Amino acid sequence: MSVTSDRQTAKRDQILKGAMNVFLRSGYAGTSMDRVAAEAGVSKQTIYSHFQDKEGLFRSLIEGETLSRFEAVFHLDHQQIDPETLLRRLAEIYFTQVVDNGYYVPLLRIVIAESERFPELAELFIQTVAQRGKRLLSEYFRHHPELNIRDPEAIAQIFFGSMVSWVILQKMLGGENSIDLSRDRVVNQLIDLIVDRSR
Fold first, then answer.
1. Which residues lie below 8 Å from residue 106, measured CB to CB, with a gap of 6+?
2. SS3 for 52?
3. How far is CA 61 from CA 15, 65, 111, 163, in A?
4. What count of other Cβ atoms lies within 10 Å of the Cβ of residue 150?
5. Domains plus CATH for the chain?
6. How far is CA 40 from each of CA 115, 175, 181, rounded to the nearest angstrom?
7. What is the pLDDT of residues 3-51, one digit of tens each?
8. CA 5 → CA 1, 2, 47, 155, distances in Å?
């Protein structure tokens, strides 16, 4: 990587860090490029040179905190990893690298809270996280006919959707204080349903 590329990457990371602070503090509606520029210590023009607009900035934050963490798993040859191992790796990445890093839940709160006023947020989350993640897992299922999955897209949705639902109930709505359901139990049962060890 060249010195110029290193500087560009560092500047981009600086902007994203500043933007994350502003979004979490002010929400989507309360975030402006002026505030991000001040927080990141850069000019607005610098932000626009890296990101097209506020939506593009938020998209990059979501991608960085979610989908990009899964890409290494899906870049493996489909024949190099068995379904149970893959599903456990995906679950581990989701819970330890995404949920537990401190940013995912607050970002998800913003999407849910402000999606009525800004429907593009919900669409952005669905396109960036839900659709692309589901597509990657569906493709993997199609390469493993031994699983006898008739509807790969639906099963991929059930897998990711169940984990997201657990996070909403347990982490966002306070369910961990009243619902005795560990994430390991959810993951184990999902894998049992998909892999079906009885075969």
1. 24
2. coil
3. 10, 6, 12, 20
4. 7
5. 3-51 (1.10.10.60), 63-195 (1.10.357)
6. 26, 35, 40
7. 667 788 888 999 999 999 999 999 999 999 999 999 999 999 999 999 9
8. 6, 5, 16, 40
Q: According to the model, what pLDDT value does residue 79 have?
A: 60
Taken in order 82, 140, 93, 88, the sign of the CA dihedral is negative
CB 15 within 8 A of CB 47: yes
User: In this structure, which long-range contacts are made by residues 84-87, counting pairs with CB atoms below 8 Å and at least 24 apart in sequence?
Assistant: 84/191, 84/195, 86/140, 87/159, 87/187, 87/190, 87/191, 87/194, 87/195
Torsions phi, psi of 198, nearest 5? Answer: -70, -15
Q: What is the pLDDT of residues 174-188, one digit of tens each?
A: 888 778 889 999 999
Q: Which two tokens stand for residue 111?
A: 């999407």
Find out whether 95 and 184 touch, Cβ atoms under 8 Å.
Answer: no
Mark 161-196 as b/e (b = at least 16 C-beta within 10 Å): eebbebbeebbeeeeeeeeeeebeebbeebbeebbe
Instruction: Determine the distance from the C-alpha atom of residue 177 to the mean position of all C-alpha atoms in its chain, rounded to a whole number.
Output: 25
* Separation CA 59–CA 169 (nearest Å): 24
Q: What is the rounded distance in angstroms from the CA atom of residue 96 to the CA atom of residue 91?
A: 8
Task: Report the alpha-carbon distance of residue 38 to residue 35 in Å, rounded.
Answer: 5
